[in-house]
Amino acid sequence: MISFTPSEEQSLIIETVRRYATERMQPAAHDADELARTPTEIIDKGWELGLLPNAIPETYGGFGEEHSAVTGVLAAEELAYGDLSMGFYLLTPNLLAIPVLHCGTEEQKQQWLPRLTDAEFFPATAAMIEPRWNFDPYKLETTAEKQGDGYVINGHKSYVPLADKAEVILVYAREGDQTQAFIVEKDTAGVSVLDEEKHMGLRALPTYEVKLENVKVPAAARLGGEKGCDLEMLLNYSRVALTGMAVGLARGSYEYALKYAKEREAFGQPIAQKQAIAFLLAEMAIEIEATQLLALEAAWELDQGKDATRTAMLAKHYADESVLFVTDRAVQVLGGHGYIREHPSERWLRNGRGFTTFLGMAMV
Q1: Across all residues in the chain, what is the average pLDDT?
Q2: Residue 269 main-chain phi, psi, to 5 deg
Q3: End-to-end distance of the chain based on CA atoms, in angstroms?
Q4: pTM recorded for the entire structure
Q5: Domain annotation for the chain: domains and CATH numbers
Q6: Phi, psi dihedrals of residue 197, rounded to the nearest 5°
Q7: At a CB cut-off of 8 Å and minimum separation 6, what does 287 contact?
Q8: Cα-Cα-Cα-Cα dihedral of 344, 126, 294, 284, to 10°?
Q9: What does the angle CA 161 – CA 71 – CA 300 come to, to the nearest 5 degrees?
Q10: Which runs of consecutive H residues, i.e. helices, occur in 83-214?
């Protein structure tokens, strides 16, 4: 029998992140979205929580014993509960850390993991998504060709968070008929970071298109060396992260709508007592609980070393639908107020609509 009751350590992490999300992220979220800028002090304070160092073993400068996807999902949920853009921002270094931790050579782990446990936020990112309608992580158009004692990478990426200030980018590319990943350091010749992208949601998260033109990297830059990386496992870590974040976003949206429905009166009574509104809120709560359980099950399978592909894909697919359902119903509960920018419901709906396109943008 599987139990998802958090351990004492996990409960402490959840409570700490939830307090940070409630006291720091939520009050700043509206202005961050309006100004399209995440306050540096918010990120610095979030980095001090030590979520990533907690996932990295002491051998590499962290203070964790073993990486836990379940713990990561619980933390990601709370971060997205605070604000989705800021949550993605704080989790961006994971896009390098998790792949290196699970697939990297010993040299790659020694080189990069200690830098991801520094006291200051380390801007590392990854480039997986490509700007085309039929993007497929298994059939990338970005290529890596073996030349001499290294590789030459050519391609075009999008949705690359923090690319403008990243010290290193983990670039996913097609090598032969397989997708592999390559560690590309800042200022490598041929890497061009284009203008900041403008999206319907995630406005406080700076993302960029990145062009790679004859980018030469040594053989040691190939994640995992000759063995390479396990793409499916890494995609599963992304799927469970995004499912957890969808839960956090949906939960925040539901709680706001519930509070509003209890306080807003029509014809002499709170609208929460109206059958139509009560049914909407009940359906929202059901979707959140179901998605959370799917996320935890997939994360648990990853922690057990099982092939979590089926469970993770089901969780991600369900989350894509449920987060849109909940955030849309929250706007409905608020009525005309749901369409006004002073209320966060419209922002949550805009953010929730993007989950189908976020694969590869978060890992836990």
Answers
A1: 96
A2: -150, 155
A3: 24
A4: 0.96
A5: 8-117 (1.10.540.10), 124-221 (2.40.110.10), 231-357 (1.20.140.10)
A6: -75, 155
A7: 250, 322, 325, 326
A8: 10
A9: 105
A10: 84-91, 94-103, 106-112
Structural tokens at position 86: 């800021």
Q: What is the H or E stretch that residue 209 is in?
A: strand 207-218
Q: Are 145 and 243 in contact (CB under 8 A)?
A: no
DSSP notation for 145-179:
EEETTEEEEEEEEEEEETTTT-SEEEEEEEETTEE
The structure tokens listed for 244 are 């957890």
Q: What is the pLDDT of residues 303-346, one digit of tens each?
A: 999 999 999 999 999 999 999 999 999 999 999 999 999 999 99
Q: State which residues of the chain have pLDDT below 50.
A: none
Per-residue pLDDT, 5? 86
- What gap in Å lies between CA 232 and CA 227, rounded to an integer? 14
